[in-house]
Specification:
This protein is an alpha+beta fold. It has one domain. It contains six helices and six strands. It has a six-stranded antiparallel sheet. α1 packs antiparallel against α5, α2 packs antiparallel against α3 and α4 runs antiparallel to α5.
Length: about 220
């Protein structure tokens, strides 16, 4: 029984690293519900922990659950798991015929998810500003002025990205690098088959007929 060793020169190291970071994001979500972005209003009056894989909103001690968002985050988790598996198989088997299809399936998903998340945050920040009349920065602090009758109160708003967000940034960058690495390093290193030469036509040797008695007499 022969065991084929992996050719380390043909391993996609950026793809392998991207598979590891995607797996880490999923594990952090499953074990700790680690958010990518947080917002807190007042002294724990309202708090939201948000990521494409998790959604947790708490207002005055009451958790707000939205079923459709739960399903979206579940689909995101499953998609990330599929991407991690596909990138791992591609990275260690780049010479297989299906490797390029696995890469094309997997490398776009973390990048698209990251871009969609950032665009959604920016849009939500503008929408919230138009509703509450106070700026909601993507990262930083601001003040929300609340007035009820003659009573006014200032409530601080604090927002910020967590370190998991920067892990997601690294994942998106690694996904792009894996695609470029495949294009510039892996594909050109594929062994090329020698050109097929067409067989030359060979002439059959002429067979001399044995001389007969009649031919001898003519001579």
């Amino acid at each position: 029984m022969s065991i084929k060793l992996i050719n380390l020169k043909m391993v996609s190291w950026p793809g392998l690293a991207c598979a590891v970071t995607i797996s880490t994001l999923v594990l952090l979500s499953l074990l700790y519900a680690s958010p990518w972005w947080q917002v807190e209003v007042g002294d724990n009056a309202a708090r939201a922990n948000i990521s494409p894989l998790d959604y947790n909103v708490d207002i005055i001690g009451t958790s707000i659950e939205i079923p459709i968002i739960w399903f979206i985050t579940l689909i995101s988790k499953l998609m990330f798991v599929a991407c991690a598996v596909a990138l791992f198989i591609y990275s260690v088997a780049t010479q297989k015929s299906y490797s390029k299809d696995l890469l094309n399936f997997a490398y776009k998903k973390p990048l698209i998810t990251f871009i969609f998340f950032v665009v959604t945050l920016v849009g939500a920040s503008y929408v919230a500003q138009s509703f509450i009349g106070a700026s909601v920065p993507l990262s930083g602090t601001s003040t929300l002025n609340i007035s009820v009758g003659e009573i006014t109160a200032d409530m601080p708003i604090s927002t910020g990205f967590t370190w998991v967000f920067w892990l997601a940034v690294a994942t998106a960058v690694l996904a792009i690098v894996a695609k470029i690495y495949d294009w510039k390093i892996i594909r050109p290193a594929f062994p090329t088959a020698p050109p097929v030469q067409e067989p030359r036509e060979t002439k059959a040797p002429e067979i001399k007929k044995p001389e007969t008695k009649k031919s001898r007499k003519k001579k």
